Every structure is written in C-alpha cells, then in structure tokens.
Amino acid sequence: MEKVSIAKIEKMIYIVRGQKVMQDSDLADLYEVETRIFNQAIRRNLDRFPSDFMFELTQEETDELYTYLGNTGKHGGRRKKPLVFTENGVAMLSSVLNSKRAVQVNISIMRTFTKLRSFLLMENDITSRMNKLEDGTNKLFKVVFQRLDEIEDRLTPQLTPKRKKLVLLRIK
Predict the structure, then answer these.
(1) Which domains does the chain have, with CATH numbers?
(2) How many helices (H) and strands (E) does the chain have?
(3) Cα Rg for the chain, rounded, in angstroms?
(4) pLDDT 10s digits, 65-105
C-alpha cells in the first residue's frame, strides 16, 4: 500500500464557494476505488453528509473546475456533476469507508487540512504584524514631516504681504 503524500493531496484541494473542498473523483483515486463505487457508498449514507460537509457543484462551477484542470469533461467523461467534500465531509468519510487504505488516506488528508489551516493562521498573523508596522511607520513619518514643516517655518524669512514677487526670465 503506497503512502499518500501531503503534496499530492494539497494539489487536490480547491476553493469553491469560499470553502476548501476535495472532489469525489480525487478522493476515489486516493482511496483506490472507482468514482462510481465511491459515490454509491456516499449516497447510501447521505444522512451523514449535510450541505456543509458535501455538495454537488453547479454546472458553472463544474465548467470552471474543468477549465482550471485543463479537462473539457467531454468525450466519455462524467455524466453527473462532481460532489465535493469540505474538511468535515472528508472526516466523515472515515465512518463510511472502513478499509485500511481509507484510514491511511483520511489521516493524510486531515494532516494536510491542518497544515493548510496553520499556514493560513501564520499568513493572517504576518498580515496583522505588517499592518501594525505600516500604521506605526505612517505615524512616525507624519511626526517627522510636521517637525520639518515647523523648522522650515522658523528658518524661512517672513515676507510682507504687499511685497511683489520678482519673476526672472531667462533668454537664450
């Protein structure tokens, strides 16, 4: 039994409707079963998969996914729209699919989702720190420019308001 790499799983995670999901055919491939057999097992246990665990893609979403994957979906491809599973849906698969392979794949997938979540948290932390740094820098520059304006006002001689400006023209 071949171990499933996290890098392989990461490539199978897509963002649909603002959620990280995995497609039924990718999961079936990981579990080493036909997509048709995989989906039969899911449909026999639909009560375990509410809409926030699994949903069927719309035709537009399916077309967009196939375009992204470079697959036209024509010429003998799927006849039904793909099912996609959220992180919770993937976790629920372990209660439906009980082979040794399914257990190992689920462990790898859950580790991948956890890794992606930690990257997201790290990215949010870095973004937050950058925003704080930017705010601090903006405040500092504002103070520096105010001080420079004050110094310039003190050093610049005050001209009387009635004084005319002298305009010099240069002739070549």
Answers:
(1) 6-125 (3.10.260)
(2) 6, 4
(3) 30
(4) 888 777 655 545 677 889 999 988 888 887 777 777 777 77
